Amino acid sequence: MRILAVDTSAKSCSVAVVDEDSLLAELTLVTGQTHSKHIMGMIDTVINMSGLAVSDVDGFATTVGPGSFTGLRIGISSVKGLAAASGKPVVAVSSLDALALQTFDFSSYLVCPLLDARKKEVYSSQYRFIDGILEKESKEKVLSPEKAVCGISERCIFIGNGAFLYQKLIIDKIGELAHFAPSCRNTIQASTVACLSMNRFKKNDADDIDSLVPNYIRKSDAQLNLRVS
Predict the structure, then answer these.
(1) Beta-strand (E) ranges in 66-138?
(2) What tens digit of pLDDT does each residue of 100-115 get?
(3) How many whole angstroms separate alpha carbon 194 and alpha carbon 2?
(4) Domain co-membership, 139 together with 28
(5) DSSP 219
(6) Confidence tier at 219 by pLDDT (50, 70, 90)
(7) What DSSP designation does 126 have?
């Protein structure tokens, strides 16, 4: 099972090709430029590095949010185009699920990924590893970082650009209970996205391409302004 996976949910852009449990190739960039300038070139590069052709890929996986409104649209549109052209299935993956899985070596801790949502808010959820399997314990929300850590009374590993941005606030709120993933983990790796999608592909549990849309959680500024007017 060969999966091409993409993440464009934040400032980073990541593409990977995974064959079952083996990572064949991966490329991650953080340039500050729009992902539309790089995504297709990165896909071509990673496919070539893996020694495959797009026709050799069995399916595509992409993060669908929460995250950057523009970034998510670019990644999802790119994957939908490849899937439509090739007739291969697509699996949608939560950005927060991907971040949470990247704390696998802190499996005894509560896991709290935080993605910067701007406007002094974060996208967040809580997870726990049970017998080595990542389990989601709360719904994905957008809220202030203070509310995101409210009620945490056990050792917790924080991960994501929101965890980095609000590290001092988190420590002030819950003190020694707060632990932070290494900074290199705060960027979602496309290989993690592929890993999360693999079981669904094996079960033929793909998403409908036509209805595949970003999971923004929060309304866009344009929608909010329209409602006000």
Answers:
(1) 90-93, 110-118, 121-124, 127-130, 133-136
(2) 999 999 889 999 999 9
(3) 9
(4) no
(5) P
(6) confident
(7) -
